[in-house]
Amino acid sequence: MTNRLRGAAAAAACALMLTLTACGGSGPTAEDHGMTAEEHAQWEAEQAGGGGAAAEGGHSGHGGGAAPAPGGGGGHSGHGGNTGETELWAVQSAPLGYIVTDGTGQIVYRSDRDSNQPPTSTCVDPACTAAWAPVLVGESGVVGLGVKEDDIGALVRPDGSKQVTVAGWPVYTHVGESTGLESAGGNGADGVWWAINPQGEKALPPTG
Q1: CA 155, CA 171: separation in Å to the nearest integer?
Q2: pTM here?
Q3: Closest C-alpha to 92, from 136, 128, 146, 129
Q4: Residues paired with residue 152 on neighbouring β-strands, in sequence order
Q5: How many CB atoms are located within 10 Å of the residue 160 CB?
Q6: What gap in Å lies between CA 180 and CA 25, rounded to an integer?
Q7: CA-based end-to-end distance of the chain
Q8: Sign of the CA dihedral 96, 99, 103, 106?
Q9: How far apart are CA 13 and CA 91, in angstroms?
Q10: Edge-to-edge strand list for the sheet holding 172-174
Q11: pLDDT-based confidence at residue 180 (cuts at 50, 70, 90)
């Protein structure tokens, strides 16, 4: 990862921590996102001087304009800013432990109906993708913040779009689900959909 990308990733991770804290939670620490103390100090210095990734046209936090992902097909690009990258975040969820979210803060899921050897998606018909949107590779690729680069891949869907994989598992977001880490979201839906952790494993089972 280049110094500029590492700096942008560090700024983005800090932006997420501020967002989560503003929502009432303690938020993940810099270390939770794989940031070094040097990167955190650099981000703070840039913010104090009015710089940072946002000033350079990079990631300014969750939401914002998203560059279109290739292929369309009812998928979800998972952009958090306007960098053209799909973002995967490793974050702490109270009910689910460490899980992956996309750049907009939505929980990322895997399906028991899919396979990771080889990576295969069975959610290809409109009835499925209307509820579970494939996370698609952005125009500038995929960046992992707390998710190892070696665990991030992609598969080509029947419509030609490229779907992101984590440890070989195709990943999705639950359409219409609100962002935030206060609930378990769609974890355990239909007995086959599970929030995914940074290693590609299922999140903790639903409680209550």
Answers
A1: 10
A2: 0.64
A3: 146
A4: 166
A5: 10
A6: 10
A7: 41
A8: negative
A9: 10
A10: 132-134, 172-174, 108-111, 193-195
A11: confident
